[in-house]
């Protein structure tokens, strides 16, 4: 491929190890390598790159609007950058973990990225109604929650497509929720594209477990980023004291506690705890808050 030797900008559409697949402004895709030993680029990044033979050299990652990542005790894992929204796909079966959902919502809120929660398997009753009821506190606090059936022609997929239009959306969800089916419904040639990326990066089957960018339209206005890894969503990059700020249902009561540095766990005169007792905040979400607060407090001791 003939590429100009001057510096150009491009879009990172896949990564594997130190290698990136960069889409040029002309729509071509080529393998690029970082200048240093470790690549800082993630899918969704705009990068400045320069041709180096048949491949490219990444000179800089351009400023990001946002970055969604997780951090556990050992490592930091970046999902994607420059997102318009995150789509968390859950299902009526298998039963989803509210703890995982809460972690994803907190991480996205901390990064300033809106979230759409989608509950799949609408046709599976009564399990769907039961799962939908579990999401009632999220609807009540203003979280967008959409029903979906990938097996029935009930208009729910069309409604979801409208939510995606003109946006860059990262899709994540637990195993069994139907993420692969959703991606293949939205992008009929997704498997073929993944295979092409795999061959380009020389990474074989491993690319299918990495984050990948897909265009949903010929005009390149709507994009879907498929990402694995929902189970272990570490929040070690957040302070325990700031956790409550990322919970929309806590927001109306913050600043109303007797003590300005209230942890909302045991202090007298806590407005958050009073809201839980009055039924304005879900007791389950408050319990999960306590567990996360303890986890993050413990992490800061080492």
Please supply descriptive tags for the structure shown above.
Rossmann fold; six-stranded mixed β-sheet; alpha/beta; 302 residues; OB fold (Dihydrolipoamide Acetyltransferase, E2P); Ribonucleotide Reductase Protein R1, domain 1; globular; 25% strand; five-stranded mixed barrel
Describe it for me?
This protein has 302 residues and is an alpha/beta fold. The protein folds into three domains: 8-61, Beta Barrel (OB fold (Dihydrolipoamide Acetyltransferase, E2P)); 67-226, P-loop containing nucleotide triphosphate hydrolases (Rossmann fold, 3-Layer(aba) Sandwich), CATH 3.40.50.300; 240-299, Probable gtpase engc, domain 3 (Ribonucleotide Reductase Protein R1, domain 1, Orthogonal Bundle), CATH 1.10.40.50. Helices cover 26% and strands 25% of the residues. The chain is built from eight helices and 13 strands. Strands 10-9-8-11-13-12 form a six-stranded mixed β-sheet, sandwiched between helices. Strands 1-2-3-5-4 form a five-stranded mixed beta barrel. A two-stranded antiparallel ribbon has the order 6-7. The termini are far apart. Mean pLDDT is 88; it is low at 204-209.
Sheet having the most strands: 6 strands, mixed
Low-confidence stretches: 204-209
CATH superfamily of the largest domain: P-loop containing nucleotide triphosphate hydrolases
CATH structural fold name of the largest domain: Rossmann fold
Number of helices: 8
The radius of gyration over CA amounts to 21 Å
CATH class group of the largest domain: Alpha Beta
DSSP, total strands: 13
Q: Please state the average pLDDT score.
A: 88
Arrangement of strands in the largest sheet: 10-9-8-11-13-12
From N to C, what is the helix and strand string?
A: EEEEEEEEHEHHEHEHHEEHH
What is the helical fraction, as a range of percent? 25-40%
How far apart lie the N and C ends? 51 Å
Label the overall shape.
Answer: globular
State the CATH architecture of the largest domain: 3-Layer(aba) Sandwich
How much strand content do the residues show? 25-35%
Given helix and strand content, the structural type is alpha/beta
